[in-house]
Design a protein that fits this description.
The protein is an alpha/beta fold. Helix content is 47%, strand content 13%. The protein has 16 helices and 11 strands. Strands 1-4-5-8-9-10-11 form a 7-stranded parallel sheet. It has a two-stranded antiparallel sheet with strand order 2-3. A two-stranded antiparallel ribbon has the order 6-7. Helix 2 runs antiparallel to helix 4, helix 4 packs parallel to helix 8 and helix 8 runs parallel beside helix 11. It is globular, with a radius of gyration of 19 Å.
């Protein structure tokens, strides 16, 4: 593989010194970019875009052509795993993802089996290798997957949910069945992420969007526990370098203290917890990623710059900070406002590094 020209992200994730704070942005490839909208229209629909390695590579590269970012992230979706499990993923305009065959009983769970990821998810690995070739060592490539709990909410509810009545009912009434379902997702996700590394991913991130919807004990059992089992079995070295692992539970707050013990290298932090508090929760044992409120990007360039300054000051001096939003860029954002954020991080962050 080509030598990496910019390894700031990988160094920061391992809490090694950097000359400035590296940054990338969740959903940096997405609908706020006109070039993305054109490519998606060319693909026909979202999953056709994901399944076309050349087009997935194109949209992955688009934000890097506009902005001085320190990482690319694979263009894909967290629901590729349940799709590989045969649940019939489809998208409804204005409503988001749906499944033709949701898993809502112990009997349905018993029918699940770990798929052959090389066969069912080979298009993702082809996209990873295509992106690595196109990057040509410019910046590292982040691979990712959804957490078993978050993926499980879609599998059981049949689509997006805010209250999660069915899966929470399953957790109360048939917890062993839910454990069994999550374990299948754990095994599949572990193989999936390791295959991404084999194809060329240089860091990994697990997105746990809905873990904080659980009470702490249930979070430890149904969300953090499955993530822990994935981390335990991930490929942690490739191409002669450590492959850092980032865990992100949206809204984690004090749960960050529980997440430190997983053996991950970094924790994502959303905007509801200050980075100063996150450093205290984690005793500086892991790197932190975040955490500007995405809504700040709707404000003026001056306000965005101040938000960047406040975020950097909240983390303070020392290694181990990767600048990011607290969640993804929303489709309504002006691309010039993202440029203002990137420029501010480049300008303001060196003072926090020796």
């Amino acid at each position: 593989m080509t030598e990496l020209k910019n390894d700031l992200l990988l160094r920061a994730l391992l809490r090694e010194p950097t000359e400035r704070t590296p940054l990338w942005i969740m959903r940096q490839a997405g609908r706020y970019l006109p070039e993305y909208r054109e490519t998606r229209a060319q693909a026909g629909d979202f999953m056709s875009l994901c399944r076309n390695a050349e087009l997935a590579c194109e949209v992955t590269m688009q934000p890097l052509r506009r902005y001085k970012l320190d990482a690319a992230i694979l263009f894909s979706d967290i629901l590729t795993v349940p799709d590989a499990l045969g649940l019939g993923l489809y998208f409804v305009t204005g409503e988001g993802p749906k499944f033709e065959r949701p898993v809502q009983s112990a009997a349905a769970i018993r029918k699940l089996a770990v798929p052959d990821v090389a066969d069912s998810l080979g298009y993702v690995f082809e996209a990873v290798s295509t992106i690595r070739r196109e990057l040509d060592g410019q910046v590292p490539l982040i691979g990712f997957a959804g957490s078993p709990w978050t993926v499980g909410t879609y599998m059981v509810e049949g689509g997006s949910s805010r209250e999660f009545p069915t899966i929470k009912g399953l957790a109360r009434e048939e917890p062993q069945a839910l454990d069994a379902m999550l374990d299948i997702v754990v095994q599949t996700t572990t193989e999936y992420l390791n295959a991404q590394v084999e194809a060329g991913a240089q860091a990994l991130m697990i997105f746990d969007t809905w873990g904080a919807a659980l009470e702490r004990d249930d979070y430890l059992r149904f969300s953090l526990g499955p993530m822990q089992r994935i981390v335990d079995n991930l490929t942690r070295e490739s191409e002669g370098r450590r492959v850092p692992v980032i865990l992100f539970t949206k809204g984690a707050g004090p749960l960050l203290a529980d997440m430190v013990g997983t053996g991950c290298d970094a924790l994502g932090v959303d905007w509801t917890t200050s980075l100063a508090d996150a450093r205290r929760y984690t005793n500086d044992e892991v790197a932190l990623q975040g955490n500007l409120d995405p809504a700040t990007l709707r404000e003026s360039p001056e306000a965005i710059r101040q938000g960047v300054a406040d975020t950097l000051a909240s983390y303070g001096k020392g290694p181990g900070h990767v600048f990011n939003l607290g969640h993804g860029v929303t489709p309504d954002i002006d691309p010039d406002h993202v440029a203002a954020l990137v420029d501010a991080v480049h300008e303001l962050s060196p003072q926090y590094h020796d």
